[in-house]
Amino acid sequence: MYTIAVTNQKGGVGKTTIAMQVAAAMSRRHRVLLIDTDPQRSTQWWADNVPRPLPFDYAGPQQASVIARLPLLQVEYDFVFVDTPGSFEETRTLDLVLDAADFALVPMTPEPLAVEPTMRTIHRLIEPRGLRYAVVLNKLDPRTPHQWDVWMHRLDTDWGYPRTAETLRRYKAHADAPILGELVTAMPTNPRTAGLIGEVTRLAVEVGTHVAAISGTW
Length: 218
Description:
Strand content: 5-15%
Oligomer: single chain
Shape: globular
Radius of gyration: 16 Å
Number of strands: 6
Number of domains: 1
Helix content: 25-40%
Mean pLDDT: 89
Distance between the termini: 11 Å
């Protein structure tokens, strides 16, 4: 069992969207559990709107201390995703989650105000633990010239952070998914959703590869 913390102390970078959709994509081949430790309970609201059984097990809002007790569960999971708070006031929660995590996925949006909180999350909370992680660039706008090139250069050259090769673009379907209760495993493939489904699916495969590298081939 591998525990993946989806974390960034900056709010609004897409932690819940990535946790829900990547967990759904990985559930096609693996036994997956999703836990919400964010006081905003965004995953709870999304899960309540899904008009069919969730493709993964969902623990609902939980205290972060439950993460350390997961190995005691009788049910075996391949991957456990943890949606975490996006604030500087919830450091205790993040400490507990990251202490128990095997890998951290760090969503980041291509905007200046996301830089400092992302760096703080990495330098103060993730790297001191020796925890493997990858930044995933989220909400790229294809209408903005050279945005991908500029931010890839910053991540790779200016900051040297490990990142996922897959990025996620800004889609209306992403914004609509929580209220519509949509997950990639049940979305119809059409011009509105095809790009989203493809990107999330590739990201899920890549996350599995990153996690497999922790202790050998998955």
